[in-house]
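Researcher: Next sequence.
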Amino acid sequence: MIAFILNNMRIDKYLGITGCATRAEAKKLIRSGAVTVNGAVVKSSDAKIDPERDKVIFCGNEVIYRRYTYILMNKPEGVVSATEDGRDRTVIDLLPNDIRKTDLFPCGRLDKNTLGLILITDNGELAHKLLAPKSHVEKKYFFKSKFPLTAEAARQFENGLTLEDGYETKPAKIELSGSGDEGVITLVEGKYHQIKRMLDALGNKITYLERISFGPLTLDESLGRGEWRYLTEEEAAALEAHGIKNENK
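Model: Next structure:
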């Protein structure tokens, strides 16, 4: 089954925005008889469908209606986590024109030069639940530092640090590997430039940072930098369940 996310629209746009095919490809496939709506072959690309009610079959796969859009992206360096920006490209700019809906936004932020997993959605209620301070949603980052971290520095990091502005971070987890200058950090909060500021507080510097998980989601290693895909049905269900669980904490 192919999942999708929109309101009534032309069948070719519907297939394009769900990722089944480009608009041009969809038009050709529709003319070839590869698409049925409620069991009837549709050969006109401007035919309208109701995704709440109509059963669409595309090349043998049913296109299933989903109320919200959930996109997993592998954010590249130099791109900002915003819906629009006057100077830099945003994560929304990396999406095809067909699915740049005005209500899509990044759920949380990654710094401009931080790489990796970012969730893009139009489900504001769920995003609020996942990002609320009380939720303590875990976020994991692979990092590299300028200098190796000592066992004492790691202990301080895990106990929480006082940053330059006086903010006291919550306890975090750090797993060192190699020579101690790289590893995985797990946070349950997301303050501005937090990991960089925590390393600064230890007299060190972050040289590479990549988010590899967010709640139940993990970075899809098959995605190149700047590439994206829709969440699977299982991933979307796990994400929504995670939001409900954290709301009830």
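Model: The chain has three domains: 2-65, 70-127+230-247, 138-214. The chain has six helices and 16 strands.
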